[in-house]
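Tokens in:
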């Protein structure tokens, strides 16, 4: 039975990299059916709102969405469309792999293979209690951590490690200073870790984690942490392997999952046909894993690696002279073989 997925083309370079990604998926003969939905500035222009109800209904019905970058306009409304999507569908787990790729501008062309699992709905990004004093001198925001939120994200990380054969989970915190919020997260994480005796577990303070990642990233396997720390760490990890152009992300909830390229909409290069589609393609590979097609996901990742190794039609950010679609076609040829 074919899978129907909601496709959000997004803003800026979003439609270009989505066209490239769908070209590769179609070449693989996966039998996917696409249902188009609007969000971001494209939706605002067409429907007068950033997140139309029809788009939300499509995601809720299909339970899986593939999303290009969105632009949140400056001013009123949502602080972030992505944050709003996570709230509406309770997408509590943000899963960001970072893997070394050949022929990239990376300090670590080999040796990095880790996943950051970030709590996605609580903490500093909940925007709870935000206010600025009348004199404009003091800003306040509440950071809330719950046992439920901590337990389910840590359990997700350990289940992921168990399911994928990974051997180690690192719990990242700042409980030495943030004794209430980060302290609760660490306490719950220790309780969950004790239920997975076959998986090695260690604990690191977030600042030491960042230093260790830069010095010896090969020591990490799965990292689990809270919202703000996970946002920072996952971008740092992208920098280890060549940048956000190679960084996919999955947002997972109990009922719905949204897969994406985590970089921005890059309006400065929109329409030029030079955007690197790899981040969204790698997000699509995560989607295929989620849909129960791990062999196809592996095939797609291997095709990307082989195309990078061959330096075949690479986009300018990767040092090549190809364009978005020529790069995608080179990947598609290998993925379909």
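Residues out:
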């Amino acid at each position: 039975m074919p899978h129907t997925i909601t496709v959000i083309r997004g803003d800026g370079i979003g439609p270009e990299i989505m066209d490239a990604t769908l070209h590769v998926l179609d070449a693989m003969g996966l039998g996917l059916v696409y249902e188009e939905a609007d969000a971001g500035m494209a939706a605002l222009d067409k429907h007068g709102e950033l997140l139309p109800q029809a788009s939300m209904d499509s995601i809720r019905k299909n339970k899986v969405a593939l999303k290009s970058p969105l632009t949140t306009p400056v001013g009123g409304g949502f602080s972030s469309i992505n944050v709003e999507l996570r709230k509406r569908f309770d997408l509590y787990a943000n899963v960001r792999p970072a893997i070394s790729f050949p022929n990239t501008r990376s300090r670590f062309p080999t040796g990095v293979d880790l996943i950051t699992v970030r709590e996605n709905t609580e903490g500093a990004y909940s925007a709870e209690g935000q206010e600025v004093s009348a004199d404009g001198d003091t800003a306040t925001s509440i950071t809330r951590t719950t046992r439920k939120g901590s337990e389910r994200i840590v359990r997700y990380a350990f289940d992921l490690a168990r399911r994928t054969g990974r051997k180690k989970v690192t719990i990242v915190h700042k409980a030495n200073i943030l004794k209430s919020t980060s302290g609760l997260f660490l306490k719950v994480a220790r309780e969950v870790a004790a239920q997975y005796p076959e998986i090695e577990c260690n604990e690191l303070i977030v600042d030491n984690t960042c230093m260790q990642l830069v010095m010896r990233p090969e020591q990490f396997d799965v990292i689990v942490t809270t919202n703000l720390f996970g946002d920072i760490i996952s971008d740092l990890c992208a920098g280890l392997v060549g940048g956000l152009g190679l960084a996919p992300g999955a947002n997972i909830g109990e009922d719905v999952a949204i897969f994406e390229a985590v970089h921005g909409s890059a309006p400065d290069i929109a329409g030029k046909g030079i955007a690197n589609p790899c981040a969204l393609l790698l997000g699509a590979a995560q989607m295929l894993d989620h849909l129960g097609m791990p062999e196809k996901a592996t095939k797609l990742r291997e095709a990307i690696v082989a195309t990078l190794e061959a330096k075949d039609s690479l986009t300018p950010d990767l040092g090549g002279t190809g364009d978005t679609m020529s790069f995608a076609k080179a990947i598609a040829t290998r993925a379909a073989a």
